[in-house]
C-alpha cells in the first residue's frame, strides 16, 4: 500500500492503516520525542500523544509538502506543549546575554556522551538548545513556539552552552587524570 493510500485510510479511521503508519514512522518520531523529553518514559508518552494528534488531524493534511515533515512538526509541538504550561522559562533582559562557545574535539567524545549531557540539561535549556542547535530554528521561531521572548531564548541557549562547556571540561579533566 502506498503512503498516500495509507494516509487516506487513516483519514477514515482505519485502525490497520494507523498501525502501519505507526510502524513506518514511530522510530523516527520517537527520536524527536527523546531529544525533547526529560527521559525515556516521558518520550514514550509523548510519542503516543503525538500519534493521537496525528490521527486526529490527519484529515487536515492536504498532500502538500512532506507528510513526514508534517508529522515531525506535530511531534515537536506535542512535546513542547507540555512545557508551555509548566512555566519553566524565566524572563531575562536581552542585553545581559553573553555568547559561549563550546569546543568539541570530535574524536574525544562519543555521540552517546554528548546526547547524555544534553539530555541532562534543565528543561528550559535543553529545549532551546535542541531547537536552535540541532534543529536550526531561529530565536524568533523558538520564542513563538515556547511562548517566551527572544531574549529568554538567547539567554537559555547561552546558559545551556555554559553548562555543556563545564561538563565537557570536567570530562576532559577526568579522562586526563585516568590516563596518568
From TrEMBL:
Transmembrane segments: none annotated. One of its GO terms (biological process) is DNA-templated transcription initiation. InterPro entries: RNA_pol_sigma-70-like (IPR039425), RNA_pol_sigma-70_dom (IPR014284), RNA_pol_sigma70_r2 (IPR007627), RNA_pol_sigma70_r4_t2 (IPR013249), RNA_pol_sigma_r2 (IPR013325), RNA_pol_sigma_r3/r4-like (IPR013324), WH-like_DNA-bd_sf (IPR036388). Keywords: Sigma factor, Transcription, Transcription regulation. GO terms for molecular function: DNA binding; sigma factor activity. The keyword Transcription regulation applies. The keyword Cell membrane does not apply. Pfam families: Sigma70_r2, Sigma70_r4_2. Residues 21-87 form the RNA polymerase sigma-70 region domain. Residues 112-162 form the RNA polymerase sigma factor 70 region 4 type domain. Belongs to the sigma-70 factor family. ECF subfamily. PANTHER family: RNA POLYMERASE ECF-TYPE SIGMA FACTO, RNA POLYMERASE SIGMA-70 FACTOR ECF SUBFAMILY. This is Sigma-70 family RNA polymerase sigma factor. It comes from Seonamhaeicola marinus.
Amino acid at each position: 500500500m502506498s503512503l498516500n493510500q495509507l494516509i487516506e485510510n487513516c483519514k477514515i479511521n482505519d485502525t490497520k492503516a494507523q498501525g502501519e503508519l505507526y510502524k513506518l514512522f514511530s522510530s523516527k518520531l520517537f527520536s524527536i520525542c527523546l531529544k525533547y523529553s526529560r527521559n525515556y518514559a516521558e518520550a514514550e508518552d509523548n510519542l503516543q500523544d503525538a500519534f493521537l494528534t496525528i490521527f486526529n488531524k490527519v484529515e487536515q493534511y492536504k498532500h502538500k509538502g512532506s507528510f513526514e515533515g508534517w508529522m515531525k512538526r506535530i511531534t515537536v509541538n506535542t512535546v513542547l506543549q507540555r512545557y508551555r504550561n509548566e512555566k519553566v522559562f524565566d524572563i531575562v533582559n536581552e542585553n545581559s546575554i553573553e555568547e559561549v562557545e563550546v569546543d568539541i574535539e570530535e574524536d574525544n567524545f562519543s555521540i552517546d556522551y554528548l546526547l547524555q549531557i544534553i539530555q541532562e540539561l534543565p528543561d528550559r535549556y535543553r529545549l532551546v538548545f535542541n531547537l536552535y542547535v540541532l534543529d536550526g530554528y531561529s530565536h524568533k521561531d523558538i520564542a513563538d513556539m515556547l511562548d517566551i521572548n527572544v531574549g529568554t531564548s538567547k539567554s537559555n541557549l547561552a546558559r545551556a552552552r555554559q553548562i555543556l562547556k563545564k561538563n565537557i571540561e570536567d570530562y576532559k579533566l577526568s579522562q586526563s587524570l585516568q590516563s596518568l
